[in-house]
Description:
CATH architecture of the largest domain: Alpha-Beta Barrel
Active site: 35 (proton acceptor), 254 (proton acceptor)
Structural class: alpha/beta
Pathway: Amino-acid biosynthesis; D-alanine biosynthesis; D-alanine from L-alanine: step 1/1
Strand order of the largest sheet: 8-7-6-5-4-3-2-9
Number of domains: 2
Radius of gyration: 24 Å
Helix content: 25-40%
Function: Catalyzes the interconversion of L-alanine and D-alanine. May also act on other amino acids.
Strand content: 15-25%
GO cellular component, one term: cytosol
GO molecular function, one term: alanine racemase activity
Order of helices and strands: EHEHHEHEHEHEHEHEEEEEEEEEEEHHE
Oligomer: single chain
Number of strands: 19
Amino acid sequence: MITAARLTIDLDALAANYRQIRDRVAPAQAGGVVKADGYGLGAATVARTLIAQGCRNLFVALFSEAEALVPHVAGEAEVYVLNGLLPGLEARCAALGAIPVLNSLDQIARWSMQAKADGKIVPAVLQVDTGMSRMGLPEDEIEQLIAKPDLLDGIELRFLISHLACADDPGDLANAAQEARFLAIATHFPGLPLALDNSGGTFHPRGHFDLVRAGIALYGGNPGAGPNPMQPVIGLEAPIAQLRTIPMGTGVGYGLTFHAARETRIATIPVGYADGWPRCLGNRGAAYIAGVRAPIVGRVSMDSITLDVTDVPAKHLYPGARVELIGPQQSIDQVAADAGTISYEILTQLSRRYDRDYRPAHAPALDRSTIA
């Protein structure tokens, strides 16, 4: 019997996933992406787990994330800010010791000015857009930088990076086009270490340059379209809060969008869209009880879900009985597929309302970051 919805986080599986990627991409280094509070699992705890496996390069998206993380990893790993710095954050970043990823000439100019203000060389990563049209210097700014390398005065570049748009499909022609463009740009930065691959890219049948940035694969999500090679990291279960039997034709939930086609046993569990369970899974998704699929019937409410448990043996139905939402019967990728989204979204939306059980039990869970 359980008394609250519980999110289980298997740190051994997280470590094993990192080792698999690390060994796969060697001699390239394997970096870990811990943005969005470690994909919702606690950036500091995830980072400490990765550092214990030899990870020395950690990536966040926002400077606020770097401020929360650096005190936990200072001296053991570098923290890179993928989105770069908004105006006015340069002095704080330099004092913190985080390393910005420079995505535009404007960001380069501001970071160079910070170097002059501090009277010292400051580190950075240079990102170029090779076809995704999101982050990184666009074509015209790349040409300006190549023509005027003194724009980088005071800046020590650690890596030249870009990002693959279609990495989860190794056969997509966009990957080869982006790689070719990346290598062409790299000729203008001789000797600078290169990083192109994200989780999906680490499984492409080629070399992996000098550094990869592993994200969803670390957390057990499938980095491609085939069988998932990663170990599952999270499990989610909730207790049955209430049971009822309804006659044929009875409606369930807001809007009465489900009507029982037979006498139906309904179980209500205390998880809803406020907990990150997608509202669109109403009348589409499912949970599992004792290995038996229990469809979600009616709409997902803010704090509850109703399940059709008519086919579940009665001995498994009682207040406090375990209901699996993510686990051996239903992976995070399956939940995402049912919701018409990706595992990243499911993972990062999981609520702080869940009890969190970090395993192995002896591994201390550090205070979770206070990243909004």
